[in-house]
Amino acid sequence: MSQCLISTVGTSLLGNANNPRVNPDGLGPAELLRRDPQRASAEANALTRLATPGDTLVFLHSDTEDGERCAGYLAEYFAELGYPVRCERIAGLSYHERGFVSHGLRSLVRLLAGEIRAARRAGQQPLLNATGGFKAEIAYATAVGLMFGVPVCYIHERFGDVVTLPASPVGWDYSLFTWYRDFFEWIDEEPRPTAQVRERLMALPDSVALLVEDAPDGHSYLSPLGEAYLEAFRGQPDTRRPLRLSPSALRTLDTLDFSTRSAYLGLLERLRQGQDREWQRSTETLSGGVLKFPKGHSVHRAFFVEREGMLHVLELCGHDNERRYQHLMQTIRWSQYESHTFQDLP
């Protein structure tokens, strides 16, 4: 299988071209790269060891003139060697700290995730060459590689060996994104005013807030790490069980405030995530065969049945409405509902 080598690009080529010890003849960057690629550029030093015929090379460069120049020189050199090449700009990734933190690293994460997915769709093995670029850029490229199960390589221009961090066998825990999927999709959809984000975060666990950061533009975004987790989560197979809601359960959701609605949506996601009937350990069977989830001490409950592998949620009710809750405990029956009126939970 051919590889798609995705390289972050720094400016070592320009620095070496201006260094008399590396470039005593005063060659231009392109000429220096052709004469001695392994000394001329950290990125080329790695790629000349990693690339094999048939591989595709993608160069991700910063949102700077120097970054674009270096990527262009590298692309030109490797294209002359017969490799398919492509350059991509990382929007907002520059020397200016404000844009670098609030926008650039998130752009890097999204671009890396997109390139990894594109390579796999094309039947290629993605490989990250995190040799070049800002230190933070290298760190986040490594994190993305770990989360996506992609090997990450690194080499310093003065070193002779490539260090490869293999694809991680560790299974990442995406339960937070599963339970609060609505919030993560909402904040990632478009810039959200900080006041709105903070209001929603009040109804969510502190662990969600750790993945959000406020920006100087008055909006809040997923942090670069949060972006990396979300992109990796989107690439996971959807193992959720199909779940449908009765008209009554849908009406309940529609009338709830954001905090309570989020709690119920999280509860439903936990219910549908249970594999091989794992949810049975957290359910209580009522008279008539209706199940209550979860059992034990919980403010919010779902009353449901399982039919032919599908979960049908009959009602959503908790102890905040004790009278209705106790009534449902005694009287709810599957026969009271018409299955064709249920609607899928996305």
From TrEMBL:
Residue span, CRISPR system ring nuclease SSO1393-like domain: 39-167
Protein name: CRISPR-associated protein APE2256
Pfam families: Cas_APE2256
InterPro entries: SSO1393-like
Domain of life per record: Bacteria
